[in-house]
Amino acid sequence: MNRSAVVADRVFTLSAWIFGGLGLALPFSIVGFILVNGAHVISWQFLTEDPAGFPLGMAGGILPAIKGSLALVGIGVVIALPTAVGGAIYLTEYGKNVFVLRSVRFITECLAANPAIIYGLCGYSLLVVFMALKISLLAGAITLGLMMFPIILIGSQEAIQAVESEYREAALSLGVTKAYVVRWIILRKALPGILAATVLATGHALGSAAPILFTASTVFSHGGMSLDAPVMTLPTHLYYLVNQALSFDHAYGTALVLVVLLFMINFLAWTLKRYVGR
Amino acid sequence: MSAADEKTSRRSGRGIVCSDDLPLRAELADPYGRLPPLRSTEAVLEVRGVHAVYGDKEVLHNIFCHFPEKRVTAIMGPSGCGKSTLVKILNRTLELTPGAKVIAGTVLYHERDIYDRQSLPMDIRKRIGIIHQRPVPFPMPILDNVLFGANFHGLLNGMSPREYAEFYLDKVGLLEEIKDRLGDPASKLSGGQQQRLCLARTLANQPEVILMDEPCSAIDPVSTQRIEALISELKKEYAIIVVTHNMNQARRISDQAVFIFGGRIIEAGDTAQLFKEPKTELAQSFVSGLIG
User: Fold this and answer.
1) How far apart are CA B201 and CA B181, in angstroms?
2) Which of B93, B129, B136 sits opposite A167 (nearest CB)?
3) pLDDT digits (tens, 9 = 90+) for A89-113
């Protein structure tokens, strides 16, 4: 047998193992690092109390930040998901003009790659100042919605496009309308992909401090929430704690809570996926 | 003469007569499109001078034929000859394929032009059902699969959904096998069962004509046998048009047959007759297994 081919195969196999190992080690080591540094801060008190101490954040908990982050992302998803999926349905099922379709897709891809701070800036100038929403939960949620929109749209479009055309043909052959087919077959088949994109976008939004820094966040709130008031959030709280060098312990604790929340959202989506799209 | 025809005639080494040169049997087709097509009083569907294209490529040339009630017509011919295209023009599902369309001629359904402006494709597709080569179970339970079209068209008429679905599952002989798992996803059924489920779904739409586009080519021999038995059973109630490239199947199941080659009808008529005494050399080659 060709010797160099054997050597090349071994080198290839070895490098595949090395990079595979690296791919596994990186996320695990980051999570492990946060776990080691943050686990001892986690307590019932940390999860259920307001921040305390002087300067604020040295003691107490992060409950308002957890609630604020979840509310921001929750409302953001409610805004982004239907609009993005609607857009994806149009692009795949209804749009005919190739130029328009390509332009929309190109711009959406650019938007998805935009740095989060640009969304923060736009949210601030457009929502907070121009539309006079003030720094508030609503302004932040809309900003996060805008940030999630292109990610969900691209993912949904891919998922809808991946539904074999046989389904459309077989269903339309029964004399039903296109809307009926989209509602009962296409969306059902594409749902796992749409969920995956939504989780990706949610994770992205949950962890971003930049878009909410100028639009929604505050250093301290009691956790009572209303749409027109600012909220505490996990990433901005983390940012303040580190930036002002207040408490690295609490910063790691906050990071750990953030990571665990992301895990939980992923797990929820994964469980949902198992029950749909079959 | 199309390129495909020419190739075949060169290969066989003798002049194979093409449809352009030879009159066909008048009872089914008019090769020249000059004569008014004969109309059978029992014809459900009648194709008149249809030309169909995919993009720039013409795939059906001047097709004339008709399909009687409560009989099985086989459309046969080698792969790529236009059989599937012909069957899809009969219920306006050809236009679901991008770029495909009928550019001339028309199809009459009970003497009504299905390609005129007043005809709604949705209505035509409900009345003239089709099942495809590969079974396509929808991503939902078996029961909902059967009811997919029927619910939309409001055909249940006060019957309970389960009762309605069971009636049609029974009709295709599937009920006994899956009675206890009507709530299971349809994708869990075997290929042959899926094809019968698709048939039940089409029947639940209460059509008058059933088109089948190579219904057995993706399933095993035992399931094929069941589908063939079903066809003979169903012809008591419906006009059935089956596309097949398998001439033995055509011989087994059909009352009349249309032989297509290169997008043209070469020969058509009573199945037994056509197999016994093909009038054209092309049909003879097909029947004897030289081509196809």
Assistant:
1) 17
2) B136
3) 999 999 889 999 999 999 999 999 9
Contact B185 A278 (CB under 8 A): yes
* Helix or strand (DSSP H, E) at A19: helix A3-38
Residue A66 sits in the same domain as residue A27: no
Distance in angstroms (rounded) separating the CA atoms of residues A251 and A256: 9
* Same domain? A134 vs A156: yes
- What are the tokens at B40? 């059978």
In angstroms, what separates the C-alpha of A184 from chain B's closest C-alpha?
Answer: 9
The count of structural domains within chain A is: 2
Domain residues for A13?
3-38
Residues A81 and A194 occupy one common structural domain: yes
Strand partners, B106: B48
Half-sphere exposure (Cβ direction) of B189: Cα atoms closer than 13 Å: 32
- Residues A183, A168 contacting (CB under 8 angstroms): no
For tokens 């790691």, the residue is: A252
Q: In whole angstroms, what is the distance from residue A238 CA to residue B159 CA?
A: 61
Residue at token pair 């008190």: A45
Are residues A26 and A101 both part of a single domain? Answer: no
Say if residues A186 and A163 touch (Cβ distance below 8 Å): yes
Q: ipTM value of the model? A: 0.83
- CATH number for position A240: 1.10.3720.10
Task: State the pTM of this model.
Answer: 0.82
The phi, psi pair for A80, rounded to 5°, reads: -80, -40
